Amino acid sequence: MKTKAMMLLNLVLIISLFCAVPTVSAKANFCKKTSQAALQSCQTAARSDYRLAVGTCDNISDPAARKACQQQASANQKDALKTCKDQYGARQAVCQQLGGAPYDPAIDPANFVATIDNPYLPLTPDTTFIYEGQTAQGLEHNEVFVTTNTKVILGITCVEVRDRDWINGVLTEDTLDWYAQDKNGNVWYMGENSTDLAGGFVVSVEGSWTAGVDGAKPGIIMEAHPAIGDFYRQEFLLGTAEDMAEVLSLTESVPAAYCSLGNCLKTKETSPLEPDALENKYYAPGVGNVRTVDLVTGEILDLISIIPPGP
To answer: Pairing between strand 231-233 and 235-236?
Structure first.
């Protein structure tokens, strides 16, 4: 028979189980957990693609061709798994800089304004920015048109910008981007409808996202008061949109028409989705983006003209 002391001890233990305050969440590194989940998803997809490819190879009658197909499937899986690992490493590097808290910016429509007039990224409707540069594929011609259209995202009326890219006169990309500026002057990237084209047909919409849909969250595309060392997310939808930016300089002078006075902002842009990609962008006060340099290929895209709004 239990003594009263034992019964009291059991009661205390039961109460403590129900009343204990969990402490795991306070210590959890949500950025790291997100990275691990993305890694597992990527690895699962790579293995799934491999199994499907092997199944396709099994349907080839010729033994030599079947073996070559299987070897290619194995090589593709190896490359895919390496990409998964590289992406994980890049995400972990981001976590080291941003910390372990969840990325969950507070967005209040009341804190946003109708006009985007950030000095480094003014977006005046009916303005067209034209960029050109030589690439390995040929002449790149890029037109960024600030439309008069708007789109409501998370209760905020956003400015719509159409971004089109041609290579040797052939349209290869046609994207709609949406931006909004808060009362402090930060310009937020609220989403994009991205399309890649080949032969006049849409071949991919990869990279499309809208804040508030499927867990997508907006990021800052341009700070109100950039400071050297600032590091921030420009967009966030895990596995789809993970661009990052870092402020490198506020006194750049490059041989570009709008950046010769030593007052340009220079940023470094990366993405865990493309660990090997690296760009520098230059912004002139009162103008916006004036030069983009691909540090991997050496290719440069310069602003060559601005078409202002008509009368």
So the answer is: unpaired
Mean pLDDT by 10 residues, the chain (311 residues): 45 40 60 95 97 97 96 97 96 95 96 97 98 97 98 98 98 98 98 94 95 97 98 97 97 79 93 96 95 96 93 76
CA 260 centroid distance within chain: 29
Q: 110-307 architecture in CATH?
A: Beta Barrel (2.40)
**Sequence ranges of the domains in the chain:** 28-98, 110-307
CA angle, 166 as apex, 161 and 168 as ends, to 5°?
A: 165
Q: What is the largest CA-CA distance in the chain?
A: 96
How far is the C-alpha of 286 from the C-alpha of 23, rounded, in Å? 49
Give the integer Cα–Cα distance in Å for 191 and 180.
10
Q: What is the pTM of this model?
A: 0.88
Radius of gyration of the chain (CA): 25
